[in-house]
UniProtKB/TrEMBL annotation:
<dbReference type="InterPro" id="IPR056372">
    <property type="entry name" value="TPR_DOCK"/>
</dbReference>
<dbReference type="Pfam" id="PF23554">
    <property type="entry name" value="TPR_DOCK"/>
</dbReference>
<keyword id="KW-0344">Guanine-nucleotide releasing factor</keyword>
<dbReference type="GO" id="GO:0016477">
    <property type="term" value="P:cell migration"/>
</dbReference>
<dbReference type="InterPro" id="IPR046773">
    <property type="entry name" value="DOCKER_Lobe_C"/>
</dbReference>
<dbReference type="InterPro" id="IPR043161">
    <property type="entry name" value="DOCK_C_lobe_A"/>
</dbReference>
<dbReference type="Pfam" id="PF06920">
    <property type="entry name" value="DHR-2_Lobe_A"/>
</dbReference>
<dbReference type="GO" id="GO:0005737">
    <property type="term" value="C:cytoplasm"/>
</dbReference>
<feature type="compositionally biased region" description="Pro residues">
    <location>
        <begin position="1185"/>
        <end position="1212"/>
    </location>
</feature>
<dbReference type="GO" id="GO:0005085">
    <property type="term" value="F:guanyl-nucleotide exchange factor activity"/>
</dbReference>
<dbReference type="GO" id="GO:0005886">
    <property type="term" value="C:plasma membrane"/>
</dbReference>
<feature type="compositionally biased region" description="Basic and acidic residues">
    <location>
        <begin position="1040"/>
        <end position="1054"/>
    </location>
</feature>
<dbReference type="InterPro" id="IPR046769">
    <property type="entry name" value="DOCKER_Lobe_A"/>
</dbReference>
<feature type="compositionally biased region" description="Polar residues">
    <location>
        <begin position="1216"/>
        <end position="1226"/>
    </location>
</feature>
<feature type="compositionally biased region" description="Basic residues">
    <location>
        <begin position="1055"/>
        <end position="1064"/>
    </location>
</feature>
<feature type="domain" description="DOCKER">
    <location>
        <begin position="566"/>
        <end position="977"/>
    </location>
</feature>
<dbReference type="InterPro" id="IPR027357">
    <property type="entry name" value="DOCKER_dom"/>
</dbReference>
Length: 1226
């Protein structure tokens, strides 16, 4: 073997001929046999080397065409057997021989074939025996325990299968199969497992395994080996590969009959493979292969196999149950967590097809063996139903999710398997008979999930199961409460998860109503149930539709709709679940007040007790509470924190008191109590010292069928955000509904518009009506305390617009101008769990011109008194607002006084035509007379505080007031205010009030202009707080009703020009008066006294300047309304004596939308000119010097009017304007 390999292969044929010549020439002697054998092994080894691999065809050709040693097989076999017999000693030589075994046997077989050709099978028995002896030697070697032969044994397992295809040409294949079986069986247990399995894999790949009779010998051996190693979890990869290869051969059509062989695999391996699949994790790289093997096994099983499989368990009923349980659980797990990627469509569909057939086969077993009363297996049936539903609802079968082409191809090849299994489930359910009650309510959820699959025929077939469940439960319990509760709970989860649609709702309603109405006892209750589910479905479908909507407001609305429904039907668990969904939405929007009210609904469900918390009460991980009392404590702490962030300190105090009671008298937790009381003290201080921004309220109507059902053709009252103007609010609405059209009228829409397919939004500002808590009535209360209730805890809102009755009076158009006041009532008080609520009732009333005048005069008097009161409370207040207020009233050159009232109502003609108004006219005169003492006190204070620079202005003010006083006292009598002590005067300077806002001053107000601050002040209508009206001026535009508010831009431009012209004239009059007195005008004073239309800073919206208090006003009388007599008049006010007043049930504490005289909150940073565009129409806020409001004290004013007050007086003819903004008629 010392010759160079290249030289050998170069002369390969010659070399081989020489070797075999040596062997044949010494046929009677074995002297050279071993040497020739070793040389042959060396040559075969050379060719096996990578370097000489290309000589392999040369060797093959030599054996097939040139080899001619007919007796070589005996010598080669003999030498090989000798090596095997002495494996322990000749390990190296044997190992080399094993590697060359394939070609050695090619020489042996070719030699035997040539010999047979020459001698016609002579020596057949000797040859057969020699082969048997050789395999016996192999088997003996495999069975030995010698460690030195381990490598040789492994080589034998690797290379022996390579001889199969050649040996079977000259040896009986069946006997060869037996020899191989013995060879495999001799491998020691636990050793060379992997090599043994791969040896069997090679045998399967050989021609031997394709022969039916050989398979019958080899297959039992292989299945036994597989079963053993699978159960031991040994070499799972090799086991799976062997099984896959066996199944692949058996699936071929050219390998003869396979039914019995499939049966062997089924009997021995199916359950073992199932358990292996169950035991493997989803992250195992082998799981897909084992599932494929299991699927292939099931695929090749026919009806006979399934029947035989069950029969193999004999009479051991528990074994059948265990097998079916394992199979159902495994199938369900594989369906729920598919081991193949979703884009392996063919593989997944093939698996589904096989599983479907298996499920149906096993269902037949259930019907046959486990349905009668004695053998019924509840859990087995339950597992079947859950498996079948899981199969039907799996993602890979939802054809509607695929493209049309893909869907068509799948349907053509596999049909819609959902329908097949669905019909089977229906039949299985009806087969249960009296056992159905055992599956209620547990099976309600799975059946519901099945019916929600969007396949109409499947739905029609399976929805009736619900009625069968209702009927079944009713038969046993005389109700179907458990079924109803379960379907409501499950329906919520299913719809939220994306299942269900409008078609399902219609089909559900139609099918169940048809069945219920035919039933004698379920007709009514069944119909109520169907109606309940349909209503729930509507809300849940709406909720799901907007769940991912950008508009959090819509999401909040739908959430509230759902939680209110659950509250209505007393489903506490679901109710709380949606409460927290709503709370989370509010926190995302920084709606802390609404978040607090939402959590409070949960807290109200709890008791201050040691009762254990049910699981559904603690749905948030953040709450660590074992009792209801502990959970309620934690909720209250969080709610108080939210109320604090929302500046709702009054509400926080109420909860704090309840919590303090528990700490003090029940828990005795004084440390917590002290901390809580300190926090409450801070809340009290905040109430009186911190000025809170006051939001506007807006009425919004959504008309047209284009809106979602929860908005469609409904009106809502919205609570605006801080500093939010109507224009900004409208822009926000239209952003949510970009296709919506803004309505230009405030009248109710027509039926045609409501039923149209479009979207129409109506939006205008409304005024909240104060409902003062009883504890504050008839008591002196600080304005800061009461102002909270002007915009909080309100449920009624008003909107006013002018209407004309009768003929137009060119001299005094005000005489026949009426006010239409509409009152809206919401479903709940605002603020609440939402920033808006639906309007549930609307009412309207008309205010006569005379009543409006009475309201206006009373309001004017209160405004003067409030201003005086503030200056008495805080001497440091600037005088400028008082200057403008007094000048606007006493100077007839500004607004013309109340002459319009006299022209309209005090004439003989009017009194003769309206004798029923005599009492109201007297009261109006009385109110005019009462204005004088209030003005007198204001002028007195003005004189004390006026600067030298404004002394001429004050002197003119006094002169004008003197003329006015003489006229009024002459015509309407003398009134005086009583002297009051200082005992109730507040000692805290108003300058200590902390404000989050920037101050602004007010424009000069005349008697007429003050009417703009309220549209209603009639104590005879408690809570009648409507939209504020500006002076109703005798300009043509003035008579246009509010439903003509929105005009095109050219008309708006004309209005602006007229307004500028009017104000410029007003400015000239004011300036002339100042110049006439030679007042040195400093820049700041000029700004203060000027009525310029341009604000010095961005002003608050006009909707925040109007009165939002309604009739709950500061009364003009210390007691009830009484007829005017001199004996009831209060005494005059003495100088320097502070005016006081009492809070009556009809008291009104503020005259504009920001709280009378309060420093308005600061505006947010201006981002564009559009932010303040509408402020140009509001000249009432022009100076940054208005201080915070004073506390309220008792005052004595004239008696309140028991009837509606008259409208404001018309202005002079030179002052003609109608300015409309935010739905407010001016």
């Amino acid at each position: 073997m010392k010759v160079d390999g290249g030289e050998v292969v170069k002369f390969l044929q010659d070399t081989l001929d020489a070797l075999f010549n040596i062997m044949m020439e010494n046929s009677d002697s074995d002297t050279f046999d071993t040497l020739v054998f070793d040389a042959l092994v060396f040559i075969i080894g050379l060719i096996a080397d990578r370097k000489f691999q290309h000589f392999n065809p040369v060797l093959e050709t030599y054996i097939r065409k040139h080899f001619s040693a007919t007796l070589a097989y005996t010598k080669l076999t003999k030498v090989l057997k000798n090596y095997v017999d002495h494996a322990e000693k000749l390990t190296d030589q044997l190992l080399k021989a094993m590697k060359a075994l394939e070609y050695i046997f090619k020489f042996i077989v070719r030699s035997r074939v040539l010999f047979n050709q020459l001698y016609e099978n002579k020596g057949e028995s000797d040859f057969m025996e020699s082969v048997r002896n050789l395999f016996t030697s192999f088997s003996i070697m495999m069975n030995s325990d010698a460690e030195s032969t381990s490598m040789v044994k492994g080589a034998a397992l690797k290379y022996v299968p390579t001889i199969v295809n050649d040996v079977k040409l000259v040896f009986d294949p069946k006997e060869l199969s037996k020899l191989f079986s013995e060879f495999i069986l001799k491998v020691p247990p636990g050793r060379l497992v992997k090599q043994k399995l791969y040896c069997m894999i090679d045998i399967v790949h050989s021609d031997l395994f394709t022969q039916h009779d050989c398979r019958e010998i080899l297959l039992p051996l292989m299945t036994d080996q597989l079963k053993f190693h699978l159960e031991q979890h040994e070499e799972l990869e090799a086991c799976c590969q062997l099984l896959s290869n066996i199944l692949e051969v058996l699936y071929r059509s050219d390998v003869g009959p396979t039914q019995w062989h499939i049966q062997i695999i089924m009997e021995k391996l199916l359950r073992t493979v199932n358990r292996t699949v169950i035991s493997l994790g989803r992250d195992s790289p082998l799981i897909g292969s084992f599932v494929a093997s299991m699927t292939a096994t099931l695929r090749q099983m026919d009806d006979y196999h399934y029947s035989h499989l069950i029969n193999t368990f004999g009479k051991m009923r528990t074994d059948v149950v265990d097998f079916l349980m394992e199979t159902f659980i495994m199938f369900k797990d594989l369906i729920g967590k598919n081991v193949y990627p979703t884009d392996w469509v063919i593989m997944n569909m093939m698996q589904n097809k096989v599983f479907l057939r298996a499920i149906n086969q096993y269902a037949a077993v259930l019907n046959k063996k486990f349905l009668d009363q004695t053998n019924f297996e509840l859990q087995l049936w339950n597992n079947y139903f859950h498996l079948a539903v899981a199969f039907l609802t799996q993602e890979s079968l939802q054809l509607e999710n695929f493209s049309s082409d893909k869907r068509a191809k799948i349907f053509q090849k596999y049909q819609d398997m959902r329908r097949q299994i669905g019909f089977e489930i229906r039949d299985m359910w009806y087969n249960l008979g009296p056992h159905k009650i055992k599956f209620i309510p547990e099976m309600v959820g799975p059946i519901l999930e099945m019916t929600l699959v969007p396949e109409i025929e499947l739905r029609k077939a399976t929805i009736p199961i619900f009625f069968d469940m209702m009927q079944c439960e009713f038969h046993f319990t005389r109700s179907f409460q458990r079924f109803e509760n379960e379907i409501i709970t499950k329906l919520d989860h299913e719809v939220e998860g994306g299942r269900g649609d409008e078609q399902y709702k219609i089909l559900f309603q139609k099918i169940l109503l048809e069945h219920c109405r035919k039933h004698k006892y379920l007709a009514k209750s069944g119909e109520n149930f169907v109606s309940l589910v349909v209503r729930l479905l509507e809300r849940l479908l709406d909720y799901r539709t907007i769940m991912h909507d950008e508009s959090k407001e819509n999401r909040m609305s739908c959430t509230v709709n759902v939680l209110n429904f659950y509250k209505e039907i007393e489903r506490e668990e679901m109710y709380i679940r949606y409460l927290y969904k709503l709370c989370d939405l509010h926190k995302e929007c920084d709606n802390y007040t609404e978040a607090a009210y939402t959590l409070l609904l949960h807290a109200k469900l709890l008791k201050w007790s040691e009762e254990a918390c049910a699981a559904h009460l603690t749905q948030r991980d953040g709450y660590q509470a074992s009792t209801q009392g502990q959970l309620k404590d934690q909720l209250y702490q969080e709610i108080i924190n939210y109320f604090d962030k929302g500046k709702m300190w009054e509400e926080a105090i109420i909860l704090g008191k309840e919590l303090a009671e528990q700490y003090e008298n029940e828990m005795f937790d004084f440390e917590q109590l002290s901390a809580l009381l300190r926090k409450q003290a801070q809340f009290y201080e905040n109430i009186v010292k911190v000025i809170r921004p006051k939001p506007d309220y807006f009425a919004v109507g959504y008309y047209g069928l284009g809106f979602p059902s929860f908005l469609r053709n409904k009106m809502f009252i919205y609570r605006g955000k801080e500093y939010e103007r109507r224009e900004d609010f409208e822009a926000r609405l239209l952003t949510q509904f970009p296709n919506a059209e803004k309505m230009k009228t405030t009248t109710a829409p027509s039926d045609e518009l409501r039923l149209s397919s479009g979207q129409y939004i109506q939006c205008f500002t409304v005024k909240p009506i104060l409902e003062l808590p009883p504890k504050f009535q008839n008591k002196p209360v600080c304005e800061q305390i009461v102002s909270f209730y002007t915009i909080n805890e309100v449920i009624k809102f008003q909107y006013s617009r002018p209407i004309r009755k009768g003929e137009k009076d060119p001299d005094n158009e005000f005489a026949n101008m009426w006010i239409e006041r509409t009152t809206y009532v919401t479903a709940y008080k605002l603020p609440g769990i939402l920033r808006w609520f639906e309007v549930i009732s609307v009412s309207a009333e008309e205010i006569s011109p005379l009543e409006n005048a009475m309201e206006t005069m009373q309001l004017t008097n209160e405004k003067i008194n409030n201003m005086v009161q503030r200056h008495l409370n805080d001497p440091n207040l600037p005088i400028n607002p008082l200057s403008m207020l007094l000048n606007g009233i006493v100077d007839p050159a500004v607004m013309g006084g109340f002459a319009n009232y006299e022209k309209a109502f005090f004439t003989e003609k009017y009194i003769q035509e309206h004798p029923e108004d005599q009492e109201k006219i007297d009261k109006l005169k009385d109110l005019i007379a009462w204005q004088i003492p209030y003005l007198a006190e204001g002028v007195r204070i003005h004189g004390e505080k006026v600067t030298e620079a404004l002394r001429p202005f004050h002197e003119r003010l006094e002169a004008c007031f003197k003329q006015l006083k003489e006229k009024v006292e002459k015509q309407y009598g003398v009134k005086s205010l009583p002297p009051m002590s200082d005992e109730r005067r507040g000692t805290r300077p108003r300058s200590m009030v902390r404000s989050f806002t920037m101050p602004s001053s007010q424009r000069p107000l005349s008697v007429a202009s003050v009417t703009s601050l309220s549209s209603d002040n009639s104590p005879s209508r408690p809570g009648s707080d409507g939209f504020a009206l500006e002076p109703l001026l005798p300009k043509k535009q003035h008579f246009k009703s509010q439903d003509k508010l929105d005009r095109d831009e050219p008309e708006k431009d004309r209005k602006e020009k007229k307004k500028e012209k009017r104000n410029s004239k007003h400015q000239e009059i004011f300036d002339k008066e100042l110049k006439a007195t030679d007042i040195p005008m400093q820049p700041t004073e000029a700004v203060i006294l000027s009525e310029t239309i341009s604000p010095l800073r961005p002003q608050r919206p006009k909707s925040q300047v109007i009165n939002v208090l309604g009739d709950k006003r500061l009364s003009v009388s210390p007691g009830p309304a009484v007829p005017q007599t001199t004996s009831t008049l209060p005494p005059p006010i003495t100088p320097r004596v502070k005016l006081t007043f009492s809070m009556l049930s009809s008291s009104n504490l503020e005259l504009n939308g920001t709280g009378y005289g309060e420093t308005p909150p600061p505006l947010p940073i201006k981002s564009s000119m559009g932010d303040y565009g509408n402020l140009m129409e509001n000249p009432e806020l022009a100076s940054p010097t208005t201080p915070p409001p004073p506390p309220l004290h008792q005052r004595h004013l004239p008696p309140p009017l028991p009837s509606k007050t008259p409208p404001p007086p018309p202005p002079k003819a030179t002052r003609k304007q109608t300015s409309i903004d935010s739905g407010i008629v001016q």
